Amino acid sequence: MQKHNQKEHLYKLLVIGDLGVGKTSIIKRYVHQNFSPHYRATIGVDFALKVLNWDAETVVRLQLWDIAGQERFGNMTRVYYREAMGAFIVFDVTRPATFEAVTKWKEDLDSKLILPNGKPVPAVLLANKCDQGIDVLMNNGIKMDQFCKENGFVGWFETSAKENININEASRCLVKHIIASESDPVQSVEPDIVKPHLNSSKIFSCSACFKS
Amino acid sequence: PAALPPAPLGFTDVNLNSRNTYEVSRRRSAPEHLPHGGTAPAEPAPPPQEPAERARHRVGIAGAGSSFAEFFTRNFFTKRTKELKPAVQSAPGWKLFGKVPPRENLPKDSKIIQQEYEARTGRMYKPPPPSARRKNIEFEPLSTTALILEDRPANLPAKSVEEALRHRQEYDEMVAEAKKREIKEAHKRKKIMRERFKQEENIASAMVIWVNEILPNWEGMRATRRVRELWWQGLPPSVRGKVWSLAVGNELNITPELYEIFLSRAKERWKSFSETSSENDIEDAGASVADREASLELIKLDISRTFPSLYIFQKGGPYHDLLHSVLGAYTCYRPDVGYVQGMSFIAAVLILNLEEADAFIAFANLLNKPCQLAFFRVDHSMMLKYFAAFEVFFEENLPKLFLHFKSYSLTPDIYLIDWIFTLYSKSLPLDLACRVWDVFCRDGEEFLFRTGLGILRLYEDILLQMDFIHIAQFLTKLPEDITSEKLFSCIAAIQMQNSNKKWAQVFASLMKDNKEGDKNHSPAPKS
């Protein structure tokens, strides 16, 4: 299947966030296209692999590291961050405390992981369980944009693993930024800069990314 | 939920046993219906009165995959044999391929088909002629009866002699092959049944020994060779909880009354937490109330994610409150440890095997063991010591796989954390996890790491073919069809000796290295 001139990228992505926000469910939805309300708690780390036919020339293999959410595991799980290229930070829109923890997760990530070019790894914020209709935070998109800018997220999405909302889009957004940051390490990678050749119609689905 | 047994003790075991017993009795009952003396095809043929539906069902069980063939023979046979006879008889020269003259052999085939048909439908049954008698054949292959060699229809040109010959030969080979396979499968099934039956007998007799001999003389007998060997075979479910309790011990001297005290404290806390979640009662100066409350909140989130497939710990399930109580009481008993993910699985397994207070006592004492304390306190440097000791024995026992893992920088923290935190109750099927717990109670922490090596050994060949992500995925989600026989034979083959040093010594020397290392490094400005 694979063409000779095809490039293959392998990216390690972290999926982090508080306990029970739906990290495993998002991954299961993304990789296996299914959902169950009965996932077992993740202890340590779980793994998944997703292969994307990014474009005619590029295959992207995503190694997803699904990291246990309990704060206590902090010291133990930081070794899992090593060499990651991007991250999803997930919170549960029905539990405000998990949103409050987002900055903590982001700081933790940035303190332990820096790209070879000295920049923080691209991170996308996922406001999960948006199907539950409890919009404590979401009805203010401008505030969320502001929050992401202040905290260095490259984008944010309201997601639902249950209803399969925005998960593919969020992933494309993150991968796009990873490719952008990787393809030109010299360039200062501002969150709103998107390489022109990547700006294909497919990628426009990433509506929540910042484009100035 | 309707299938839940009334007693909390040994829920899954009851389930498993009853299923096994059911199958055993069903299968064992089959031969009784057989006509004696080998007068009929030996496949368990139902008595004539038996409804056809049930008959088909039984045959379907005894000879997997044969019911389809049976369907065809049953429905089309009578017509077919008539057509078949001239067709096969007209094949010239095929006696070259057998000593038996064709004419005698051929009708026999069709007769047998007919007998089977009649026996199965219960109609027209009469003792077959002596020539068709089969002695000492326990399984009559069924599916071959659906395979019938035929001539071409009359409106097409007839087969040439060579072609007919070749078809006859191919047909014979196919039939012979199918028969061979079915007999082999039947033997395999019989063997499995025999083993299962033997296993159940063993469990029953072991239970008598445990109840009558060992438990009354626990301290005197627990370390004897005989008891240790019996222990390795797996504890009978009915004494499992008791033996676990005794083996784990109660160093902490927890009484059921003490459990009640901590439980009521936990309940108070939940109440005040849900009533005034914003207001801080400054009762424990210094200790962070918020942390503990968060801990209680985590318990709620995790309980429904504990053995979700059993549907008994989820909200509204019979063991939901029980699990909540044990874990809540523990966070009040040991606020220094609190609730840590993984605990819910351990408490759940104990609850399945012990009464509430006993489960709590075993839980608190189990978590007080050095290895468990290191992990649940997330003492990272201690955990690394355990991983290092594990790797010593990994390299010793499975050098090839060890190098393979090394080449991918695949460290034990990738897979061991889940295994050790939950004592395999999340990663192995529950009945198998209980067997690991049995020997863990006998041998201590060493056995947890030995089990890990046993798993790696069991899947060594597969793992050697895999790359990093596939190994990581495989080990964090083990195959569900893993059997206790295979796993325990692999565990048994793991030597917990490294150049005459046992686990405890290897671990102790790693600890010593660490202290010396600390001394050397302590003057450095950067720790």
From TrEMBL, chain A:
Family annotation (InterPro entries): P-loop_NTPase (IPR027417), Rab29/Rab38/Rab32 (IPR030697), Small_GTP-bd (IPR005225), Small_GTPase (IPR001806)
Membrane topology of the entry: Lipid-anchor
UniProt record, GO biological process: endosome to lysosome transport; phagosome-lysosome fusion
Signal peptide residue numbers: none
Subcellular location field: Endomembrane system; Membrane
NCBIfam families: small_GTP (TIGR00231)
Record-stated family: Belongs to the small GTPase superfamily. Rab family.
Protein's recorded name: Ras-related protein Rab
From TrEMBL, chain B:
One of the record's GO molecular function terms: small GTPase binding
Record keyword Coiled coil present: yes
Record SMART domains: TBC
InterPro entries: Rab-GAP-TBC_dom (IPR000195), Rab-GAP_TBC_sf (IPR035969), Rab_GAP_TBC_domain (IPR050302)
One Pfam match: RabGAP-TBC
Domain Rab-GAP TBC: 234-444
Domain of life: Eukaryota
Compositionally biased spans, kind Basic and acidic residues: 24-35
Region of interest (Disordered), residue spans: 1-55
Protein name as catalogued: TBC12 protein
Source organism: Sinosuthora webbiana
